[in-house]
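Re: that chain you flagged

S.,

Sorry for the slow reply, it's been a week of failed gels. I finally had a moment to sit down with the sequence you sent. For the record, here it is as I used it:
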Amino acid sequence: MPDHPAKTLSDLLPRLERLMGRIESLVSAYADGRTAQTDRTGESRRTGEPGQTDEPGRTDESGRTGRPGRPGRPEDEFAGYMAFRWGKRGGKGCLEPIAHPDLVELCDLFGLDREIGVLDRNTRQFVRGMPANNVLIWGERGTGKSSVVKGLLARYAGEGLRMIEVHRRDLTDLPEIVELLWDRPERFVLFCDDLSFKEDESVYLELKALLEGSLSARPDNVLVYATSNRRHLMPEKLADNTFRFSPDDDEIHPQETVEEKVSLSDRFGLSIGFYRITQDTYNRIVRHLAGQRGLDVDAELLRRESLRWLQRASGRSGRVARQFVDDLEGRFKLGDFP
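Prediction finished late last night. Pasting the structure tokens below so you have them in one place:
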């Protein structure tokens, strides 16, 4: 059960939508059972159209069950795709295969050997049926947090790893998502990218319950990998670390509020920080990317140009290095460089 009651109408609407979806599923399951029973006695009613029954959106011979837009168990999709996103169709949640996932080779990521090593070991344990931890990857923007997760999918998809992207707004659907994955032979990572919450939001409670503390069990074939620019996922104030009475604060036990803020991040077994790369690492990334794309540039000229680009950028990162090489390649093809 959530730790706190919903405070606003916007908090109640997703829960009401989930409740209605569950009621519809129960009613539909009952109707399916009645239809199957009449089929066995030879009394099913047909419309006369080949391959169709009297139930809209349902076919006899397609091998699929469930009406369009209603969540089901997409066995064929799990075999044919490695990446999915949780989306909405007609107000109902469903898994949508990603035909062209943005995969990354881990060997192309520089300056992250230790971090990749820890994440690779945890993921290897998971796909091979061993105990493993949920992961929170936090740090500054552009430091490779999401890229590492995509690289793990590329490395272990052949061993049965599947990844489902879940947006923050859909965290209230986590119980429904997990229910779809029970007893599947694949191993699923629920990927929550760029995750953070405001103080007055309650949507994080479903994620907190899934990680630990819910009465419902979590299947062994599901983990959560989340990335965030915030170490504790929630906004933190200087006053949170000032243990003294404030006349402007009417909270009797302010430390309990602080504990509530950090309790979500504490439920991730692995919390890994990503930091700004060094100047040398930045130059190595630029040289590597330029070489991959066949850009024949003098090493010293490449270094100077990359530093000039860096002066206009937000700081040293793999993302900035890639953006520079994208621009460089475009100038090459236009004949505008050197």
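What I noticed first: Strands lie at 83-89, 92-97, 135-139, 161-165, 187-192, 222-228, 270-274.

Talk soon,
D.
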